[in-house]
Every structure is written in C-alpha cells, then in structure tokens.
C-alpha cells in the first residue's frame, strides 16, 4: 500500500489532536485533495460505463434466449 499525505508518517497519527484543534490546510493539501477528487470522478465514470456495458450485454444475451 502506498502512503498518502494523511498517513505517510505513522508517528504523526499516533498523537490525537487537541480538543477544538482545527487542521490547517496548506495549498499543497488543497491541490492533493483536488487531484484525488478528479481521480475519483474519473474512476466513478469508468465504473459506471463498465457496469452499463455489462447490463446491456446481459440484456442482449437474455433477448437472444
């Protein structure tokens, strides 16, 4: 499993955050989040297309029967 920016250093996650502490996001974090969103949107579109193809192929096979 490749590390992501959230768990690249396991020692950083060992200490719980302080109560009421808000995580400061840097520009790099925001850019990483945007890249991840784009990748997930692409993956979602690919999976949707694949599932639609499978359903259509299945329907065609049923009609042939």
Describe the structure.
By secondary structure, the protein is mainly α. 58% of the residues lie in helices and 0% in strands. The chain is built from one helix and no strands.
Essential attributes:
single chain, 65 residues, mainly alpha, 1 helix, elongated
- Note the total helix count: 1
Q: Structural class, from helix and strand content?
A: mainly alpha
Q: Which runs of at least 5 residues are low in confidence (pLDDT < 50)? A: none
Order of helices and strands: H
Strand content: under 5%
Mean pLDDT: 83
Please estimate the helix content.
55-70%
Return Rg in Å.
Answer: 21 Å
For the secondary structure, the number of strands is: 0
Compact summary:
The chain contains one helix and no strands. The longest helix has 38 residues.
Break the fold down into its secondary structure elements and pairings.
Layout: H1 27-64
